[in-house]
Amino acid sequence: MARKLEHAYKIHTLQLATMAVEKSLRTIWQGFGETITDDPVQFFYIEGPEERILVDVGGAADEINEFWPGTKDIQSFEDALGSVGLKPEDIDIILLSHMCFDHVLNARKCPNARVYIQEKELEYTLNPPALFRGTIPFSALRDLRFVPVQGDQEIVPGVNVIFLPGHTPGTQGVTVETKDGLAVITGFCCTEENFTDCPEPLKDIWNNMVPIGYASHPLDAFNSMIRVKGLADIIIPQHGRKIPDVIG
User: Which domains occur in the chain, in start order?
Assistant: First the structure.
């Protein structure tokens, strides 16, 4: 049973595009040769706080295709915001989970937003190892109003960022109090399968989860998954394909 919380915010899932990715990039050692053709590029709007808050911002297919060919548009960032009665200039706060291209490209369209990011992620972005350099859209990050944070931090009452390293060194998730309980937007790239489809021989070893496939530090990433599972009444996978349009 979900715990009763002080706030009853809503979370809107806003999808912009789809990518095609091999499943093993999401679920470690599983899905080799299988393609997820509808891997979503999406972001989230938290309805309820006085300040207008987005979790990630996604990107347009034509820009993402420079990093990941085969991405297909569904709608523009502006149209997605319009569906919840907002314009880019209305956004007060962006909570960036991490700096991969499909999560950050539209941030520069929100001129009034303060962009909260883990200090470790900002350090990693400024001097990334060669292995991951191609995932960061450096030109899209110019002139953003970064607000570095260290570890867990309340952003507004009922909304917190939590430090979940592993996918990248400074990945952060977001907890949101809703009428249905505490929702956790994972921050790290995963799908519903990571929390539901553990094969039988490994269920006890892996706490009935499948570790994520793409991680700078796999052990940290798995520990972050364990933390999310322990905290959340509702888990919102960053690349979940079955997330309701509105949660809470």
Answer: 10-247 (3.60.15.10)
